[in-house]
Amino acid sequence: MDIIQSLNNLKTPTLLLIxxxxxxxxxxxNNLTLANIEVEKxxxxxxxxxxxxxxxxxxxxxxxxxxxxxxxxxxxxxxxNTLTQLNSCILFLIDISENCGHxxxxxxDLLFSIKKLFLNKPLLVILNKIxxxxxxxxxxxxxxxxxxxxxxxxxSNGDFSDSGTQLIPMSNLIENSIENLKEIVFxxxxxxxxxxxxxxxxxxxxxx
Length: 208
Known about the structure:
Layout: E1 14-18, H1 25-33, E2 37-42, E3 45-54, E4 57-63, H2 74-79, H3 81-84, E5 88-95, H4 104-115, E6 123-128, H5 140-147, E7 153-154, E8 160-161, E9 166-169, H6 177-207
Parallel strand pairs: 1-4, 1-5, 5-6, 6-9
Antiparallel strand pairs: 2-3, 3-4, 7-8
């Protein structure tokens, strides 16, 4: 099967890499896909698309590049509708060293601004570049912002539930980081599939 698959195939398990420029998305993309990447036109911009193979399983991975690296206006939100409909897990990268040129507050603000686009999608927050700054070295005010990402969230029905967000400290330069991340990602999709199956069974029972 070609690495590039039509984005219209909404059921394909997809990992979306999101974050500001220079937070480590491209490096992570290369490491996850072994640099086996193609480019797809999306509206007026481009997506980098590859695939991850792990223990006999495969999923699509998309580096959103400059599409989701800024706070969106309503017109942009509408144009990104296709991405929001994918069977996806969101991988949001935060450069805790702030060497990317954006503060932790700016990075968490970006996540909150796009979070409403991906309600009910699993969210993994990568605390990247821990080789430059460890979580213990992050100022307390910034760490409170990061921890707030795990708080309860309001869904489209106005109900509050556990956000399901996972915080994952890592570095592309630390041995085993990539394999550990793959394990978490594939486990997340596996749990998601179980939840969807349970929901389908409940819906059928309600019909009868």
